[in-house]
Specification:
Shape: elongated
Radius of gyration: 17 Å
CATH class: Mainly Alpha
Helix content: over 70%
Number of helices: 6
Mean pLDDT: 88
Number of strands: 0
CATH architecture: Up-down Bundle
CATH topology: Four Helix Bundle (Hemerythrin (Met), subunit A)
CATH superfamily: nmb1532 protein domain like
Largest sheet: none
Structural class: mainly alpha
Low-confidence stretches: 194-205
Strand content: under 5%
Length: 205
């Protein structure tokens, strides 16, 4: 059973998974050579850089992982080392998406293939990463951190968002996410997370 602290991260995962569905729907359009909007490629990059990495992974690395290190977990090996490594792999894939999304010239066939390939690889990586965190890492944190430590982590989450994301940023990124989901999620391949039971996304949005 998750505490209110780790359930914050689980609810963020729910939103991220839905945007991954949308990203794969967008990538499928690219693979079919359907017309696509370059600004939407940039919107996906914005969401994954600002919400998934800066906000979500930021809270994990700077706060939750730090608390787990204080509780005796090694920082650069074991479960935390694996999670940090996967965060790094995800960042490299998003940089590839960003480099392609920011091109001012029309994409070549090679560019389209590269964007779609990076999008599918990122979605596969992040879905498995989220499963590991939800099913293994967060239960470990629940088992090894005291109630007071978990309460403190939750308070630091709140302060982190106030200081790092700025006023209105969370709401803006949720709005962007839901626009992308509405536009592209139903186009995702059948092996995506569509159809799986979802809890409401974080902040009730």
């Amino acid at each position: 059973m998750t505490s209110n602290t780790t359930s914050i991260l689980v609810r963020e995962h729910e939103l991220i998974l839905k945007v991954l569905d949308a990203l794969e729907g967008f990538a499928s359009m690219i693979e079919r050579a359907d017309p696509v909007y370059p600004q939407d490629a940039r919107a996906f990059v914005e969401f994954f850089r600002e919400f998934t990495d800066a906000c979500h992974h930021g809270k994990e690395e700077d706060i939750l992982f730090a608390a787990m290190v204080d509780a005796g977990f090694p920082s650069e090996s074991g479960p935390l080392g694996v999670m940090r490594g996967e965060h790094g792999r995800g960042r490299r894939l998003v940089r590839r998406l960003r480099d392609l999304a920011e091109r001012v010239v029309e994409w070549t066939d090679e560019d389209r293939e590269s964007f779609a390939g990076a999008a599918h690889a990122f979605a596969e990586l992040l879905r498995e990463h989220i499963r590991k965190e939800d099913e293994v890492l967060y239960p470990m944190a629940e088992a090894h951190l005291s109630a007071e430590q978990l309460r403190r982590v939750g308070e630091l989450f709140r302060l982190f968002e106030e200081q790092r994301t700025g006023p209105g940023a969370h709401e803006r990124l949720h709005k962007l996410a839901h626009e992308l989901i509405e536009r592209y999620a139903l186009l995702a391949p059948s092996e995506s997370t569509l159809g799986m039971k979802r809890v409401p996304s974080c902040c009730g949005l």
